[in-house]
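Quarterly update from the structural biology core.
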Amino acid sequence: MAMKNKNSIFKKKPSRSLLLAATLAPAAVLGSGSATAGIVFEDDPWIPGTWVTSGYVREQLSLNLGNRTGTPFDDKFEISMLRTTIRVDLDGEIGPLRVGIIGRVAREANTPWLKKIDTGLHKGVPFAALGTGANDGQAEPNFLKAQLEEEELREYFIEFDVGERFVVKIGKQQIVWGETDFFQAMDILHGRDLRWRLFFEPENEEWRKPLIMGNIIAQVPELDGSLQVVIRPGWDRERDIGNSVDFYGGRWQPNPFDSIDFFQAAVLPFNYNHHTGDNDSVTGAVRWAGTLGEWSNYTGYSVAFIRSHLAASPISTSAVGFKGEGPASAASGGLGALGQAIYPILNNYAMSINYDLSVLDIGPWTLAAEVVWTPERPFNRGFSGNAQGIANLQAQGGLASAFAGAFGSAGHGLSPLEKHQLLWMLRAESTGIRLQEYIGTGRPSFLSFQLFDRWITDFNPGDELVDTAGWNAASSEHTFVFTIVLAMNYNYDLINPGIAWGTDLTHGGGFFLPWVEFIWGDYWRLRAELDLFYAPHKPSPSSVNPNELGNGGHTFGLFEDQDQFVLRLTRQF
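Predicted structure, tokenized:
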């Protein structure tokens, strides 16, 4: 009966049901006459309430600045990204309900360089075994293009108050706890989509993956704080958990495996239903956040328990199984030559604190720290000196045997090992760096220092942990990363340059990121940047052999010779 009534409504009032879409479409394409477009429907039984739209149309272009290690042709100055994005935010109020809907559509031009990477062909000859496109037997042509494009409702939720103390938010949303410049510490409720832009996108919300959750915040003014409870019922799509990384063979595939799709069924297929991290499992978190009062200049702090899927690159189970699984072959166990890619569910215990140093008359400086303890976090291991690990792959034959020969005594094949991990971050930042008389800035600048450490507290060198599955760079007990960010403003904030630098203090290597953003009026933004990497040791021409990668398997060495020049033009509305 309900369906019949619905059909009759559409027959009688077609313009009503399409009114909202018709209003959003020209705003998204052309931009409105103001920074936000208000849409008010009064006494309308079909679209009640007050609605406001905003968003942008964006074009992004990147050029390779060097020749990549894993390709036999000249990559320099080839267009690696030509991406168009339209985002529309719709915010509404219907009585006591606040409604949020965010949609995003992204399209990638199939540039000549992307086509070559997609097919894995150079002058008609495959240059990478297991290449994507027609060469791997799994993917169709335009495989990479399909990986990079999207059209989806990223968020949709309702929010309402219950009395004076409670705020309830239900639906697909983002919840951000903690903050770091480039690396995740406490912000682990969500994974990221890093296939198209790695970690240099300025706005974290653009690549954080929203999840369907119930979110309740209770204000407790008597204790100067609030209690937040988050429940994820397990209704999300499989691809919404964990980090999506480019092991598909695209522009951010780590060296030297250009055009190789590791996630194909024959090599390392995803298993979102693995018993250590079933996508349908209920997860969630609880967090207390408060201040310590006037006597401490209102020092902010938080403590949290977070039970969530691994918010990082997936773990490879390997062909010998993991957590109670016995050895299995690709034929009998649904495994690829290197096992399965999984996102285990982990228990995380976190805390943060921030302190305003102005109480000590030390300028506008703030100190902050985050600590996250994760017991029994799985790490992948290497083969070094382990004949049995190599034999397990060789016994399977086919691709597994080929990988055993390719990786030799390095890289990837033993079942993961669970170790205890402590992540901690210290940050000092200021918005009052007075550079006006030195470099002519228009106002005080922003400066941030950050020290980040991954500490494997029960580390044992004999465990043969590796930083990245498939590379032979051994993990260390501590991995220290240091970053500096300086953001400046000129010409009444219409020209805004900045510099970011980061380095791996433990293994060497790092990145350098200069940028400048130009602002025209209320709507137009142009950002130009350089994404530059350097590794501790320059790879040799023969480093397509993973045996020779060495330190190249650490974070920054993975992207040596993948420097980019990026332009981003945005029309806001």
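The chain has a mean pLDDT of 82.
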